[in-house]
Design brief:
350 residues, mainly alpha, Serine Threonine Protein Phosphatase 5, Tetratricopeptide repeat, 2 domains
């Protein structure tokens, strides 16, 4: 893209000129072009100005939801929140924007910005999408302390802050109620097989996800927790009840197999690889590691052998460029029998 085309494109975005933006995109303009002064991408500019239709157009053209601005690191969702348009915020969230994205300079999540800018309507949208209430800024305030500070220093707009406070209180109560209703998960966490059987027999939903309360089980299914915590018989019961064997959790993008091998639970690993529909080679979102990568990384030879015997791929590459053979060499040593076996069986790199 030439400098003049870039300037024309950014000007059109700033002015909300959808026709010109669409025309330039059709001619090959990149949707992720940045303003050289502000460091904002076209999507951030449109989002900050509350132009939901233009945000949709840029997203359809492939604009990056997750990138940060080049000065402060905030995302398009942060900019939309600052702009105060609930529809734009909703568009970005429904497109996959991370609701708790953290600005690297301030530590602000979008919810913190919504409170800071006094946009209760935006707060409501973020809470609907399970924004976390127990996160902290980089300058030492929890979200709640941040909000208390806002209440104290603002001479105007307190009615909006009080409305936001009402929403936060309602969400807190809803979270507490949801946690209390998690009888099956409570039984799984406690390792109580009889209670798990009882709740399943009573019709408990086997894949109900735990509320997002900034805890270890956030948005986990019972099977994910059972596999992580080593409750083999409970995992067996959950699978028999139809639990999703490939359910992912949102933090690491891990599946039950990742959870099992990461913690060295070979029995559960053997149970999972036999489950109908199992994806042996799912790559997590944080590092691109498959369960086999994880098993080798943590030195769990028995888990790795179960995966290999089940047909796990040896050629997949993590975000660090490493295949299972590389991880095995680092973790087990070049002369270890399993390392040698993996190296011999690994297809040549393309």
């Amino acid at each position: 893209m030439t400098i003049s085309t870039r300037e024309e494109f950014l000007t059109a975005v700033q002015h909300g000129d959808a026709e010109t933006v669409s025309g330039l995109l059709a001619l090959g303009a990149g949707p992720d072009v940045r303003d050289p002064v502000s460091g904002l991408t076209a999507l951030m500019i449109a989002a900050g100005r509350g132009n939901a239709p233009l945000v949709r157009r840029l997203l359809a053209a492939g604009a990056d939801l997750h990138t940060g601005d080049s000065r402060g690191g905030a995302t398009a969702l942060h900019k939309a929140v600052q702009g105060g348009d609930p529809e734009t915020v909703r568009v970005l969230l429904e497109a996959g924007a991370f609701v708790d994205a953290v600005s690297p300079t301030t530590g602000h999540t979008p919810l913190m910005d919504a409170l800071w800018y006094k946009w209760p309507e935006v707060v409501a949208v973020l809470l609907e999408h399970q924004a976390g209430l127990n996160l902290s800024t980089h300058y030492g305030f929890s979200m709640r302390e941040h909000f208390e500070y806002e209440l104290n220093v603002n001479a105007r707009g307190k009615d909006k802050l009080l409305e936001a406070e009402r929403l936060l209180t309602a969400r807190t109560q809803a979270d507490e109620n949801a946690v209390q209703a998690q009888h099956l998960m409570a039984a799984v966490t406690a390792g109580d097989l009889d209670a798990v059987r009882h709740h399943l027999a009573q019709g408990a939903e086997v894949d109900t996800r735990y509320p997002v309360v900034t805890g270890f089980n956030d948005a986990h299914t019972p099977l994910l927790v059972a596999c992580r915590d080593g409750h083999e018989e409970i995992a067996r019961e959950l699978l028999a009840a139809g639990a999703d064997v490939n359910a992912t959790e949102p933090t690491f993008g891990a599946v039950p197999l990742h959870k099992a091998v990461y913690n060295g639970h070979a029995g559960i690993t053997a149970l999972l690889v036999e489950a109908p529909g199992i994806d042996l080679d799912y790559q997590g979102i944080t590092n691109g590691y498959t369960p086999l990568h994880d098993a080798l990384w943590h030195g769990y030879e028995d888990c790795a052998r179960v995966l290999i015997d089940a047909g796990a791929r040896l050629d997949l590459v993590g975000h660090d460029g490493k295949r299972p053979a590389d991880i095995a060499r680092e973790s087990l040593g070049a002369d270890h029998p399993l390392t040698k076996a993996i190296a011999e069986a690994t297809p040549a790199a393309a």
